[in-house]
């Protein structure tokens, strides 16, 4: 895969008639964009296309498969993120990648290949309860891996709504807000009615019987009367953190 500088050099050579168009096209076609490992076809050009490298979803993969994909991505990615990784799998990964870091609550593995400058603007991650923190940490860590400042505000659900009001100024200072809630999922609507920032709502599977594994919270968030709310899938902290990062960088202009 050619870097931006290499592409510019190639195009300059064509412009100066140092090489022909057909020769340049052949060089581009020969560049590797996929690394076929047999069990996985690693997308090596995703960061160039989308601004972010491929993320490894660890659930359902063996430690050996994760290690193989990390090895492939290391040559092309700034930071490598692997979600939904058990401590047992990480112990095996760390033997091969000793610099990899494990975040137990988020169940994520992070390998820093190149430090990314932090944004000046902030993403606020807000939870209804302590039980929602695992999903919130996945969201917060995802955002941090991609260079965002994150402010965590946990356990401020509607059952004790005065706790939320104590942190309202902090939340309003954020450029993007992620609200993580289970049970009936009402916190997203409450926060959405109090701020003028984009809000990403994350329903969690936390709750008793009629929570239906997060479906009740999901439906509440989808039917919110507060404007400006975007809803991701149940327990999808990664998706919320990724989307919030894109929004935050888009505003700041700090990421291509």
Distance between the terminal alpha carbons, to the nearest Å?
A: 18 Å
| CATH top level assignment of the largest domain | Alpha Beta
Main beta sheet strand tally, sense and closure: 5 strands, parallel
What is the CA-based Rg, rounded? Answer: 21 Å
Structural class: alpha/beta
The ordered string of helix (H) and strand (E) elements is HHEEHEHEHEEEHEHHEHEHEH
Mean pLDDT: 87
* Count, helices: 11
**Lateral strand order in the biggest sheet:** 8-7-9-10-11
Identify the CATH architecture of the largest domain: 3-Layer(aba) Sandwich
CATH topology-level fold name of the largest domain: Rossmann fold
Report the portion of residues in β strands. Answer: 15-25%
Can you give a write-up of this model?
The structure is a single chain. This protein is α/β, with parallel strands linked by helices. It has two domains: 32-112, no CATH class; 122-252, Rossmann fold. It is 39% helix and 18% strand. The protein has eleven helices and eleven strands. It has helices at 4-15, 21-30, 46-50, 63-73, 87-96, 133-145, 162-165, 168-173, 187-192, 215-222, 237-252, and strands at 34-36, 41-43, 56-57, 79-83, 101-103, 108-112, 122-127, 149-153, 176-181, 199-203, 229-231. The strands form three sheets. It has a five-stranded parallel β-sheet with strand order 8-7-9-10-11. Strands 3-4-6-5 form a four-stranded mixed β-sheet, sandwiched between helices. Helix 4 (63-73) crosses helix 5 (87-96). The chain starts with a helix and ends with a helix.
């Amino acid at each position: 895969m050619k870097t931006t500088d290499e592409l510019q050099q190639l195009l300059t050579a064509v412009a100066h008639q140092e090489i022909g168009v057909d020769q340049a096209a052949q060089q581009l076609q020969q560049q590797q964009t996929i690394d076929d490992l047999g069990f996985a076809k690693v997308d090596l050009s995703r960061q160039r296309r989308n601004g972010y490298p491929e993320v490894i979803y660890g659930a359902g993969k063996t430690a050996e498969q994760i290690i193989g994909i990390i090895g492939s991505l290391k040559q092309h990615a700034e930071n490598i993120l692997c979600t939904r990784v058990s401590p047992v799998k990480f112990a095996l990964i760390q033997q091969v990648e000793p610099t990899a870091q494990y975040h137990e609550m988020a169940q994520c593995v992070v390998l820093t290949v190149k430090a990314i400058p932090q944004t000046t603007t902030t993403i606020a991650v807000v939870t209804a309860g302590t039980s929602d923190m695992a999903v919130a940490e996945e969201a917060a860590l995802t955002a941090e891996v991609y260079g965002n400042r994150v402010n965590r505000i946990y356990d401020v659900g509607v059952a004790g709504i005065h706790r939320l009001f104590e942190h309202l100024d902090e939340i309003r200072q954020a450029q993007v807000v992620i609200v993580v809630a289970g049970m009936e999922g009402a916190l997203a609507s409450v926060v959405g009615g109090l701020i003028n920032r984009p809000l990403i709502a994350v329903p969690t599977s936390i709750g008793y019987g009629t929570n239906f594994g997060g479906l009740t919270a999901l439906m509440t968030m989808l039917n919110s009367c507060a404007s400006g709310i975007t809803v991701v899938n149940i327990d999808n902290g990664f998706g919320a953190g990724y989307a919030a990062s894109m929004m935050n960088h888009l505003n700041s202009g700090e990421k291509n």
